[in-house]
Design a protein that fits this description.
binds 3'-phosphate-adenosine-5'-phosphate sulfate, 5-stranded mixed beta sheet, 2 domains, 7-stranded mixed beta sheet, about 325 residues, alpha+beta, binds magnesium ion
């Protein structure tokens, strides 16, 4: 598939991710309260997760009826009788988001969510979706992302990454939407806006020395080893404090040049990264001129099913400093 044949994918993905963002932002306004964090109440993010997956899958189905989706969520929990209040809230939010399309029934909403059940693999074409990446960031009112990517024969060919709480590139609108198409580049536009909006090109930072880099990493120490990242930064001569940020907003930050490194260092030996946690962010960084590998310096392989079975951890950089960062990571992980 060549670049200019992806205009239909671009239109569908922009529609899907910006509709989903309207839902997640509405849930954040209406259901996330000051008590949410202190009471450890995860119900708002649960509503937003399911509603976002339903809206994205409905949009993809309308544009590409036969495309499978590898999505993080499924509707099994929602179908449970005990979860009627949760189900009603999800259905209501989806109905509002699709009001201009058709009245959605409860059964349809559940079936759209279940469209995310595909297994992926090395052959053929499928989408992968994280309806809310950075669930903890969502609950804190900080960074989260809606991440959608298209994979063909194991290669990411297109990505759309919506970051509702990153600054919008234009005066009008809300949030940041990054789109990337293989061989063609990475662009940004406001995520939620009225009327027309231009796509503006996005490029990685042009620093040539790792010592000058800002780096970003997870907020949660359970998702990436933060003690080892301190040692790696020291080895590279980096003096700037790490930018801790939830979700694939980290990839958006590297793609846009505000940081030159994103480190995700394995914490538990058995953990395998999920393809929806990376696909949209990886193509955004690569097409903006950067490079992404695992901690051993190997390319990420998206053709092994729902997980990155052949990889451990992630290193994303502006490209120029990649080899130096991989070498420092190896030294620290092997010591
Ligand atoms: N042990 C472990 N190691 C690595 N990754 C893990 C682990 N456990 C969970 N996850 C996944 O991390 C996703 C959240 O991404 P981040 O780590 O960027 O977020 S955060 O900064 O830590 O909040 C998060 O995605 P969401 O569930 O969509 O929020 C998880 O899929
Ligand atoms: Mg995720
Ligand atoms: Mg998620
Ligand atoms: Mg999750």
């Amino acid at each position: 598939m060549t670049t200019h044949e992806r205009t239909a994918e671009l239109a569908a993905a922009i529609e899907a991710v910006s509709r989903a963002a309207q839902v997640t932002q509405a849930v954040q306004r209406e259901l996330v309260t000051a008590d949410t964090l202190t009471k450890k109440d995860r119900s708002p993010v649960t509503v937003a997760d399911f509603a976002s997956q339903a809206v994205v899958c409905e949009t993809l189905q309308r544009h590409f009826a036969n495309d499978p989706v590898v999505g993080e969520e499924d509707a099994a929990e929602l179908r449970d009788e005990a979860n009627e209040p949760l189900r009603a809230s999800v259905v209501e939010h989806v109905q509002r988001a699709l009001a201009d399309i058709a009245p959605a029934t409860e059964a349809q909403v559940l079936s759209w969510i279940d469209r995310g059940h595909a297994e992926g693999g090395a052959k053929g074409r499928f989408w992968t979706l994280d309806p809310i990446d950075g669930t903890k960031g969502f609950l804190r009112g900080e960074q989260y992302a809606i991440a959608l990517a298209l994979i063909e024969d194991g290669e990411i060919v297109f990505g759309a990454l919506g970051c509702p709480n990153l600054p919008s590139p234009a005066d009008e609108g809300e949030g940041l939407l990054i789109v990337a198409s293989r061989g063609d580049g990475t662009w940004m536009t406001p995520l939620i806006f009225e009327g027309e909006s231009e796509l503006q090109p996005v490029h990685v930072s042009d620093i040539a020395a790792a010592a000058d880099a800002n780096f970003c990493e997870s907020v949660e120490s359970g998702h990436s080893d933060q003690d080892q990242s301190v040692q790696i930064a020291k080895k590279l001569g980096i003096t700037a404090e790490p930018v801790r940020m939830d979700s694939q907003a980290k990839y958006a930050t590297v793609a846009g040049g505000s940081a030159a490194i994103y480190l995700r260092l394995p914490t538990r030996p058995g953990y395998r990264e999920k393809i929806w946690d990376h696909a949209a962010g990886v193509i955004a960084v690569e097409e903006a001129g950067g490079k992404v590998t695992d901690v051993a310096g190997k390319p990420l392989e998206f053709g092994h099913g729902r997980q990155l079975e052949a990889n451990r951890g992630v290193i994303a950089t502006n490209g120029r400093i990649h080899d130096a960062v991989v070498a420092a990571v190896r030294d620290v992980l092997e010591s």
